[in-house]
Every structure is written in structure tokens, then in C-alpha cells.
Design the sequence.
């Protein structure tokens, strides 16, 4: 049962051609990276710690300029990319609602409209009654949900996630994996999810790329032969276990 | 209220013991009263000279508050300027440090030459002494802003001014307030030193009483100067509690 990317008008296509990034002095982090991500695809990027996954994601977010090579995003409109960091990184002096509305505020959206969108995004991640709380009053899992809501509030066409659930306990992580997968199915944005967890990558994505430890080269690029609908019970599915072993094999050689 | 009184009691206990011991030592002739007056003599000096001392306290308060306000505004502005680039920091920060090392007592006569005898010299003295902790703490706070949050602001096209006011300033607030707490006490010291040389207030009362061998009056004036320092510390602490209590560990109840 092979799954093709969800057909959608919302996602964007991302193309990296011969991208190179060098940190001083002569530390090549990314070398000759060619990667095409289709519109509406859920791509997991796997690799050992320090292999350049996060650098790659920052280049795609245009937070970092490559030294050479090109990045193209089609269509390319302002404010269509959202980024979820390793930790929640909320503004501690702002309430949950104001945190979720922050990107919209920076984009110049008026208060009424941005609060409505932020509330809708908070509802999507299951945080309806927390809007007046402050980050210090939230658990780690709730903070991460706010961080996800902040990214979703802008209705992004490209959602970039950099090991977003790595700091959470497994139960919270599983819940958020399911929530993220559902959100992607509903909204059809392009998702690029960086992780070093093979099982998380296999559960979430419809395509996985495994990177080498040095110079961030693509070692394996695999369409995952898994069903579209994936709920918590799917974690014990033999098909998922088979995909995990494929990815594990590639990772183990590193 | 009862809990608050119980909270203050441990801090009051050493003071009560010290006052009792000093009073007994002076009365028994173990300590000469012209070297260390009895607390009762200091209290009497406060009462007898209340008009002169309260007038002096008012003048010192005026100068210390004005110097403190100038330090706050100029210190934060200088720190913002220094934070603009590494090159600016390398060029100018050493001078800020050098400014800190200049002994105010040595330059106080210069201040009299520049600003004349009176309030302006005293304000300048309070300013010179109290500005450095504001610069150093504000700069540290601004430079310590979470890089992920800077990325977030960049992602949504926030201008440098917006990033400064909506991210860097609030994030630096705990450090700024720490700097202001230190600066409050230093402003009082600077004002007293300024009054020794070129002004009227508690500093000049101390100077004149010293020449008259009125140690009880010296102590009374010093006591009032300490109360003024504590009041400024309390003022900044109150502002700190009001602004940080919801989100910063330094002011949270737990």
C-alpha cells in the first residue's frame, strides 16, 4: 500500500541544488546537497547528531545563507514558512494567546484578526482553555503545543520542524506525533521534519532522507510504504517495523 | 501581616542585639562616646536636628534620584548603542570600563569647576558613580537574547527596532533591573561624595559635623543616607516585582 504525497494546493515545493555551507575555519557542514521536496510532502530528515540537519533546515528557512548553490521555493511568497525549534522558545512575558499570535503581530495583522487566528491554532493543538496562562504555568508538553500553535497560526505552506519533541517524555511525544500527522493531513502544507529518532521519522513521514555524518550527504532517500491514516495503534504495525528496520540499517552504517 | 512581621524578625534581631550591646558598652564606659555614640544619642541627634537633617535628606534625595534617573536613561541608551555590533563594543566598551575605574572623589573637584557649586555637581557625581552597572547589566541582557527567538523575529520580517523593543528589551529586563538595584545604592554614595566637595545635603552635614566632633550627628546623617539607599533599592525591587512576577524565576513566589 504505497502512499503518494497528499494532493494539495497549499503546500510549496522546495528545491536545493548543489548547496554548500562552510563554517570557519574550513569546516564543511553541507556539501553538494541536492534535494527536491514536493508540494504537500511530509519529509523526515534523519541523521546522527552534528551532521548538519539543523543547518540544512535553517538554509531552507532562509535564516542562513548558503555559501554556494541555490534554494528555490515554489510558489515563493512572504510569510509562508513557519519554524518550530527544538525547545518551545516562548516569550515568557507573554500569555499563551499572545505567544501564539506573535508571528501574526510581526506580520502586521490587526489585533482582532490575529487573536482569532491564534485561538483557532490553539484549538488545533488542543489548548482551548489556556490562553491567559503564562509559559511558566505550563508543562513541557503544553509549551511545545503552544510553539506548534504559534507556527500554525500563520497558516504556513511550509512547516519546518527541528527535533521539536526531542525534550519531551515519550507519552507527550507520541500524542504530539499523532496531532502533527493529523494537522498535516487536514492542511496539506509541506512539512520538513528533522529528527534523529528513526521510529518518529517512520511514523510521521511519507518520505525519509538519511544523511551521512560528514558533509551532510544524502545516503538514503526512501518513500515509506505506509498507509495515510496513522493513529497511536499504528506504532505496533509490522509495516512500520519494516520501514524502521530499513532506516535503521542506513543509520547504523554511519 | 503576621507572616510578614515574622519574616522581618530574623533581619531585625542582629540589629536589636547590636544596638543593645553598643548602648550598654557606652553606658558602662567600655567605649568612648566621642568614638562610637550610643544608639540613644544618635536617636536624640536625629530628633534635635530633625529640621536640618530632613532638609539635607530632601536635597540628597533630589540629587541622588536625578543622578539615578540620568544613569538609567543614559546607561540603557549606551548599552543599546554598544549592542549594535561587535566592532562598536570593541571600540567603546573599554572606555565605559575605564570610566568605572575613575575614583569619583578624585574627580569631584573637577565637577565643581565644570558645573559650579550646588545641585548640578552633586547630580553629576551621582551619575558618574551609578551609570556603569546599568550599562554592563543592560548590555549583558541584550546580548543574551535567545538566538532561536531572534531567528523567529527574523523569519517574520521584524525590523531591528521592533526586535529591540519587543524581544531584546523585555528579555533583558531582569538584568536591567539588577543593574538598577546596584545603581540606586551607588547614586546615593555618589551624591554624598558630591556634597562633600560642592553641595548641600547629608554629605555636607557629615562633613561639617565631623569638623565639630559631633559623631552622633555624623551617625544620624549616615543613617538617613542608608535609609535613602534602601528606599531606592525598594523602589527598584517594587518595579521588578510588578514587571517580572508573572514570568521570571527571580520574582516568582516558589
Sequence:
Amino acid at each position: 500500500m504505497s502512499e503518494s504525497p497528499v494532493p494539495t494546493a497549499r503546500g510549496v515545493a522546495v528545491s536545493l541544488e548543489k548547496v554548500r555551507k562552510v563554517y570557519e575555519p574550513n569546516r564543511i557542514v553541507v556539501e553538494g546537497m541536492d534535494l527536491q521536496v514536493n508540494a504537500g510532502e511530509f519529509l523526515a530528515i534523519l541523521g546522527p547528531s552534528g551532521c548538519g540537519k539543523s543547518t540544512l533546515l535553517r538554509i531552507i528557512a532562509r535564516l542562513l545563507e548558503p555559501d554556494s548553490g541555490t534554494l528555490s521555493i515554489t510558489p515563493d511568497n512572504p510569510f509562508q514558512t513557519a519554524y518550530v525549534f527544538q525547545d518551545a522558545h516562548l516569550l515568557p512575558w507573554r500569555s499563551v494567546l499572545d505567544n501564539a499570535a506573535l508571528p501574526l503581530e510581526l506580520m502586521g495583522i490587526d489585533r482582532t484578526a490575529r487573536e482569532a487566528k491564534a485561538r483557532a491554532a490553539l484549538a488545533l493543538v488542543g489548548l482551548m482553555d489556556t490562553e491567559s496562562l503564562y509559559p511558566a504555568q505550563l508543562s513541557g508538553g503544553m509549551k511545545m503545543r503552544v510553539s506548534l500553535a504559534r507556527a500554525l497560526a500563520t497558516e504556513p505552506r511550509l512547516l519546518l520542524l527541528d527535533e521539536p519533541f526531542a525534550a519531551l517524555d515519550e507519552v507527550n511525544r507520541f500524542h504530539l506525533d499523532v496531532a502533527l500527522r493529523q494537522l498535516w493531513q487536514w492542511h496539506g502544507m509541506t512539512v520538513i521534519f528533522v529528527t534523529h529518532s528513526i521510529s518518529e521519522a517512520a511514523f510521521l513521514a511519507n518520505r525519509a532522507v538519511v544523511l551521512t555524518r560528514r558533509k551532510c550527504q544524502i545516503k538514503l532517500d526512501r518513500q515509506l510504504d505506509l498507509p495515510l491514516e496513522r493513529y497511536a495503534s499504528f506504532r505496533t504495525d509490522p509495516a512500520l517495523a519494516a520501514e524502521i528496520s530499513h532506516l535503521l540499517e542506513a543509520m547504523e552504517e554511519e | 501581616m503576621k507572616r510578614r512581621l515574622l519574616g522581618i524578625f530574623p533581619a531585625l534581631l542582629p540589629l536589636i542585639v547590636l544596638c543593645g550591646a553598643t548602648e550598654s558598652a557606652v553606658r558602662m564606659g567600655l567605649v568612648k562616646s566621642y568614638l562610637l555614640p550610643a544608639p540613644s544619642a544618635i536617636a536624640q541627634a536625629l530628633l534635635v536636628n530633625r529640621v536640618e537633617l530632613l532638609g539635607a535628606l530632601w536635597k540628597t534625595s533630589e540629587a541622588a534620584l536625578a543622578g539615578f534617573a540620568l544613569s538609567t536613561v543614559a546607561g540603557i541608551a549606551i548599552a543599546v548603542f554598544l549592542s549594535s555590533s561587535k566592532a562598536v563594543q570593541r571600540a567603546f566598551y573599554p572606555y565605559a570600563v575605564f570610566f568605572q575605574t575613575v575614583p569619583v572623589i578624585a574627580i569631584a573637584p573637577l565637577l565643581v569647576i565644570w558645573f559650579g557649586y550646588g545641585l548640578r555637581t552633586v547630580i553629576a557625581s551621582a551619575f558618574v558613580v551609578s551609570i556603569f552597572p546599568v550599562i554592563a547589566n543592560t548590555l549583558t541582557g541584550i546580548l543574551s537574547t535567545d538566538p532561536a527567538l531572534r531567528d523567529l523575529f527574523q523569519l517574520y520580517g521584524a525590523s531591528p527596532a521592533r526586535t529591540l523593543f519587543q524581544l531584546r528589551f523585555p528579555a533583558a529586563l531582569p538584568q536591567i533591573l539588577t543593574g538598577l538595584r546596584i545603581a540606586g545604592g551607588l547614586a546615593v554614595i555618589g551624591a554624598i561624595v558630591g556634597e562633600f566637595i560642592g553641595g548641600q545635603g547629608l554629605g555636607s552635614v557629615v562633613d561639617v559635623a565631623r569638623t565639630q566632633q559631633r559623631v552622633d550627628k555624623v551617625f544620624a546623617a549616615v543613617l538617613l543616607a542608608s535609609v535613602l539607599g534602601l528606599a531606592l533599592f525598594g523602589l527598584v525591587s517594587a518595579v521588578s516585582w510588578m514587571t517580572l512576577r508573572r514570568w521570571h524565576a527571580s520574582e516568582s513566589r516558589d
Observations:
- Residues 1-8 of chain A have pLDDT under 50 and may be disordered.
- The beta strands of chain A are 13-23, 27-37, 42-46, 68-74, 81-84, 158-162, 190-195, 207-211, 218-223.
- The helical segments of chain A are 53-60, 96-106, 111-124, 140-152, 170-187, 198-204, 238-252.
